[in-house]
Structures are given as structure tokens and as C-alpha cells.
Amino acid sequence: MSGTSKIATAAVWIRNGVSNKGPEELTKASLNSSYIPALTAYEYRGHIITAWARPEFTNGSTSVGIVYKRARLGSILQVQRIEGQLFETKEQAEQHGVELCKQWIDKQVKARADDERAVQYVQVVESF
Fold first, then answer.
1. What pLDDT, in 10s, does the model give residues 110-123?
2. Segments making up each domain of the chain, as ranges
């Protein structure tokens, strides 16, 4: 099953069922069916995260995470794909994918806040 199919299924579930409980909390649900492998989706600081372990030819899996954001009319857009490192177990790789996405989101939120403070500073300076 391709990653695109998994993501499309996650997007339908997210559109119909996830809600954000707060900026620090993750909301989690797994998608399971007879033909679609389990995929976990999280909501963190207003973004949606999916993560999985990509099996490699060696004995292990690479962590992969994707960050999405909600757009107009209920659509969901991919904003970042992150590939991490090789892990011995699938569980380690999946957790690392989630952590990579959370770190990327935190960095974006901090940059946005810094930009807003810079704009406010310029406005104050220009008013003198």
C-alpha cells in the first residue's frame, strides 16, 4: 500500500474526527482495516502529524514523519516531510518520526513569534 493511500485515509479520519486539546497535547488515533496498514495521526499545536517506520533492506526501519496543516474549506495540506535515521525496531522509528515533527513545529512556532516581536519593535521605533 502506498504512502499516498495511507495519507488520504488519515486525512479523511482527521477531517471527521480529531480535535485539538491544547498546544502541548497530542491527540492520537489509529487507522486499522483489513487492507490498510495501521497509521497513527496526531494533532500538535494546530498541525497534524503522521509518522511511520519505513522498512529498509538492512535489519531496521527509517523514521518518517509528515506535518500537515488545515486549510480553507476543510482541506489538509502537507507542509513538511521529514526523514530521520535508521532504528532497529519499528516502534523506535515511529516514535522518532513523531518527535522530529514536533521539533519542526516548535521551531516554526518560535520563528513566527520572533517575527511578530520584530515587527512590533519596528512599529514602536517608527512611531518615535
1. 998 887 777 766 66
2. 3-127
